[in-house]
Every structure is written in C-alpha cells, then in structure tokens.
C-alpha cells in the first residue's frame, strides 16, 4: 500500500512538472512566465516583503495566532510556513491583489494584514519574487507546489 502511495506521488509530481513546462509556453498573465529573474526577485523581496515576512523568509513571531486586532501576523515563506501548499495562482493573486481581495474571489470574507502590490510591482516582478521564494525550498516542497499548480490549472482549463 505504502509503495503504491509513493509511486503515485512520484507520478503526480512528474505530471505536475510536465504540466508546468507545457503551460509556460502560452505565457498568460497568471501563468509563471518562461523567463524568471530570481536575482531581481530576491532584491525586490528585500525591498517589499522582508519587513513583514522576514529577511530570511522566517515570518513574524507567533504567526499562527491573531494579534490583539484579530489580524494574523505575516507567515514565513520558508518550509516551516504554508506558502508552498498554495498553487501559483493563489501566490500571485495574494501578492498582486492582497489577502482580502484574493479570498473574496473565493467567496471568503477575511480581514487580512497582507496588502496588495499591484500598483507597485509589475506582473513580471511579482513572478520574479515568487520564483525567488520557490528557489529557497527543498526539492520535495517544490515538487508538491508544482503539482498543485498544475492541478489547479487543469481544473480551470488552462
Ligand atoms: C505589511 C506587512 C506585509 C508585507 C509588506 C507583505 N506581506 Fe505578505 N502577508 C502579510 C500577512 C499579515 C499575511 C497573512 C495574512 C493573510 O493570510 O491574509 C501575508 C500573507 C501572504 C501570502 C499568503 C500566505 C502564504 O503563506 O502563502 C503570500 C503569498 C504573501 N503574503 C506574499 C507576500 C509578498 C510576495 C510580499 C512582498 C511583495 C509580501 N507578502 C509583503 C503581511 C505582509
């Protein structure tokens, strides 16, 4: 049983990676572009994200517990957080539109401490930051995240 589980995870991860490669060809706004600039992403992360998410992507202390205002602190973007659980579309929307607008798209009402950066960063710059964040994850987290991104794209038919 366990063996089958492991095999199917590997197959899914491979399919995810393949889907990612294929879907980058069409270069849509919300699909990871073919050419990402990780160095620029790292620089922009330092300028726009590190103040809340931490210089080493470590997040804010006690990030799982809401503060006195009921708003959650900034979570880490490293493996200890849940950024790698989310498909590309969610990471992109969260950064471009902010937490509130992104969750509203999913019909969820939520007061979020995550601002939108759509008026400060271009789509390409946002993808570069996301690429930088991903580049810090170990292989396993990258594979899981690639697979979830592919699954979501398939579900949405692009
Ligand atoms: C003013 C503080 C602040 C800044 C600056 C900020 N964030 Fe956030 N971010 C938050 C908070 C607080 C949350 C958690 C609340 C929520 O989930 O809505 C969050 C959540 C997120 C999430 C969703 C949760 C997750 O783990 O995936 C992403 C993605 C994200 N931020 C990316 C970024 C990126 C990229 C930048 C820089 C361009 C950035 N943030 C800058 C405060 C901030």
UniProtKB/TrEMBL annotation:
Its cofactor is heme c. Pfam families: Cytochrom_C (PF00034). Residues 36-137 form the Cytochrome c domain. Residues 1-27 form the signal peptide. The keyword DNA damage does not apply. GO terms for molecular function: electron transfer activity; heme binding; iron ion binding. It comes from the Bacteria. Keywords: Electron transport, Heme, Iron, Metal-binding, Respiratory chain, Signal, Transport. This is Cytochrome c, mono-and diheme variants. It comes from Cribrihabitans marinus. The lineage of its organism: Bacteria, Pseudomonadati, Pseudomonadota, Alphaproteobacteria, Rhodobacterales.
């Amino acid at each position: 049983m366990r063996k089958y589980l492991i095999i199917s995870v590997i197959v899914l991860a491979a399919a995810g990676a393949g889907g990612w490669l294929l879907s980058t060809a069409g270069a849509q706004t919300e699909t990871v572009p073919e050419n990402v600039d990780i160095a620029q992403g790292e620089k922009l992360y330092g300028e726009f994200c590190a103040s809340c998410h931490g210089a080493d992507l470590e997040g804010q202390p006690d990030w799982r517990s809401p503060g006195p205002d009921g708003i959650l602190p900034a979570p880490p973007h490293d493996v200890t957080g849940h950024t790698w659980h989310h498909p590309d579309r969610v990471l992109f929307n969260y950064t471009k539109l902010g937490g509130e607008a992104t969750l509203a798209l999913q019909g969820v009402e939520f007061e979020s401490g995550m601002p939108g950066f759509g008026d400060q960063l271009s789509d390409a710059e946002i993808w570069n930051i996301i690429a930088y964040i991903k580049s810090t994850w170990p292989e396993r987290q990258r594979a899981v995240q690639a697979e979830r991104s592919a699954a979501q794209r398939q579900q949405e038919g692009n």
